[in-house]
Write a structure and sequence with these properties.
Structural class: alpha/beta
Number of domains: 1
CATH superfamily: Alpha/Beta hydrolase fold, catalytic domain
Strand content: 15-25%
Oligomer: single chain
Radius of gyration: 15 Å
Largest sheet: 8 strands, mixed
């Protein structure tokens, strides 16, 4: 379904379930789509645990752009979309996340969205080759439990265990996490199960 935000239309692909245990809202990276293998693997895991899943194509990608533009505008649009979804799933615990740039958005907006947790796939800790330009502040800004799933060969770096509730590092994976997407789903399963058990 199409959702109109102050910064342009977005698209939400929704997998609903009866009496969802939680709502997981996922989004893509700067140049990716909601059909990225790692996102689909986490989607499958969440559905298997009784969660509803919404995959959001943000306005900049829906318009065909590759660069996300202003983080402020991106976050504002995200919060509008989350607000609409929270109305639809009133009273259901919210977990939000994404891959790469989408993970950054999910971390930055978690407090304002009222999220109970964040799934950060391929969190880009710093630009390649520039560890001094760390984005660890965005990771810490979530203010809730964050699950990070990164590859050990990711040129964007791997967050430290001290900066998230749990960091799963997958051997042989790079930033795209597409060598073994099922491993991404398996890494997310114990963490998502906490919301399924509530």
């Amino acid at each position: 379904m199409e959702v109109v935000t102050a910064h342009g239309p977005a698209e939400v692909v929704l997998d609903e379930v009866d009496a969802p245990a939680f709502l997981l809202v996922l989004t893509h990276g700067s140049n990716g789509s909601v059909d990225a293998p790692d996102l689909l693997a986490v989607r499958e895991t969440a559905l298997g645990l009784g969660g509803a899943v919404a995959r959001v194509t943000q306005p900049f990608r829906f318009a065909g752009r590759r660069a996300p533009g202003s983080p402020v505008k991106q976050d504002e649009a995200w919060l509008e979309i989350i607000g609409m979804l929270r109305e639809r799933f009133a009273g259901v615990p919210l977990v939000q996340g994404g891959r790469s740039n989408g993970a950054r958005v999910a971390c930055r907006t978690a407090p304002a969205a009222g999220a109970e947790g964040v799934v950060a796939l391929a969190f880009p800790l710093h630009p390649p080759g520039k560890p001094e330009k760390t984005r660890v502040g965005e990771l810490r800004a979530a203010g809730v439990e964050v699950l990070v799933v990164n590859g050990d060969r990711d040129p964007f770096g791997v967050p430290d265990e001290a900066d998230a509730a749990h960091v799963a590092v997958l051997a042989g994976e790079r930033h795209d996490l597409n060598k073994d997407p099922a491993a991404v789903g398996r890494a997310a399963e114990p963490w998502l199960r906490k919301w399924a058990a509530r």
